[in-house]
Amino acid sequence: MQKGAIRVQTENIFPIIKKFLYSDHEIFIRELVSNAVDATQKLRTLASVGEFKGDLGNIDIEVKLDKEKKTITIADHGVGMTAEEVDKYINQVAFSGAEEFLKKYKGQESGTNIIGHFGLGFYSSFMISNQVEIFSKSWKEDAPAVRWECDGSPEYSLEETTKTERGTEIVMHVNEESEEFLDEGRIRSILTKFCKFLPVPVKFEGEQINNVAPAWTKKPSELTAEDYQNFYKELYPFAEAPLFWIHLNVDYPFNLTGILYFPKITKSYEIQKDKINLYSNQVYVTDEVKDIVPEFLMLLHGVIDSPDIPLNVSRSYLQGDPNVKKINGYITKKVADKLDEMFRQDRKSFEEKWESIGLFVKYGMMTDDKFLDKANKFLLLEDVADGKFYTQEEYRTETAALQTNKEGKLVVLYSTNPVQQDSYIQAAQKKGFKVVKMETLVDAAFINNIEMKWDNVQFTRVDADIANNLIDKDENADTLLSKEQEETLKNLFTQEVNQPNIKVDMKGLTADLQPVIVTRPEFMRRMKDMASMGGGGMNWYANMPDEINMTINANHPVYLQILREKNNGLQQKQIKNLADLALLSQNLLTGADLTAFVNRSVELMSKEEEEEA
């Protein structure tokens, strides 16, 4: 039996690093600047524990571009390296100096702010270079400066050199395929993306490109409302001011800081996800945070920073880990608590923001049961009549007497378009019913979902039936017409409508209601709406004709006039027009049928003018 150590050879690993380790070549700037930050943070730690007794002096990190020489240089004034350290950390692939340093100085404040963990970041320089040089001078006294050079092959050279200042310079000789990185604008945009909030000053062309102490790194007690607003502008210069924000700050059982902003959202707003940026010790990682942030909060903006979120070696993707679930749950609780506090402390202000807040709340109630339990207290329903807001319990108290059906369920009447459904709303209000708005992007799904979660509640759209039938069917609505007139009228409608998907019925409603009322049964309409959005594998159902109930209000005075009409052709056209008007009110009259209705209407108006003349 043979035992031994598996050997990783550089001729095998360099092609992997160049092609596969980092999916995006611009990552090399993030990795090398992050290494420079680590070197500086290490020096700060050594100074804080008294091992480094010299003057820190200038600790800026500089990024330099030389188009003529085709080089990019990243220089720091950190701990530097001895020849032995270069051999240890550079020549031995994936031996992480950061990991070793963290173990030694665990507990020191600046020592825990080291970024690197894998020892592979430096090698990203070879993705864009045909030659890389390192010039380094250690902080240790009497340690000579060294120069290391490699062309990406297994061969390297290491020698003493002349360098007066402490720190490390990485000089990359850019290859032909990567000359895009010799553009000043390109480098500046990459630095702004990845290095905007690093904790050590980073300068490019003499200008500092980063804010070393962004708002999320400070305590909430140190910040004013103006500070939070200004930081939002720093993140999103052209965005409208946020509604409010939540400052995340936890150190157990995981480390997490950040600020989440609630943007202003309206019904017509083009929703943008991926507006939350993930950082690790102030280094930008990704805007793909769907595992960390609950799905319903993906519309939020802001920053999350956590060294405890596990990343793969290129820091570009999240890995499955219990900490991620804990962080997800913490953010959900923090948001729920904040909304509950806002509702209790200043309900008027909460109601004013509801148009935007409601989208998050309803989405959260559908997707997260823990959030649902808390949100039941501050979910608001807005009355279409006067804009008054009710909580679920307040609406139940106000409406239970009139809107509880025979099954003991509370019937929540709602409108998806108060303007279009105005006549139905008015009819419901005359019976003392309260109709609420349900017109946001998520309401259709919310209604279907919440009916299964709330006890003894049923949602019914205000135009799902005539007002008399919205709560319970009223079968005893007598008409003022004789039996013969009723039969004649129903035959006329049946003859003129003559569509298998339209069911004609006759009721004795009040004279001030419409002569014909068209409704679409709640259940069938919902099924069709879901099918039209591709839900439930029922796409075929979306193309089926709408199921329509056409109720004739036999007590409307217009029918006595029509029944007296001796001209059968004119009588039929009048009946047809009344039916089409009702269909039009529900946007159910289109194409050739709509054109015929317009032409018929003009014809009928012309006949009236002739008779008057």
TrEMBL record:
Signal peptide: none annotated. Coiled coil: none annotated. Pfam families: HATPase_c_3, HSP90. Keywords: ATP-binding, Chaperone, Cytoplasm, Nucleotide-binding, Stress response. GO terms for molecular function: ATP binding; ATP hydrolysis activity; ATP-dependent protein folding chaperone; unfolded protein binding. SUPFAM superfamilies: ATPase domain of HSP90 chaperone/DNA topoisomerase II/histidine kinase, Ribosomal protein S5 domain 2-like. InterPro entries: HATPase_C_sf, HATPase_dom, HSP90_C, Hsp90_fam, Hsp90_N, Ribosomal_Su5_D2-typ_SF. PANTHER family: HEAT SHOCK PROTEIN 90 FAMILY MEMBER. Belongs to the heat shock protein 90 family. NCBIfam families: PRK05218.1 (NF003555). This is Chaperone protein HtpG.
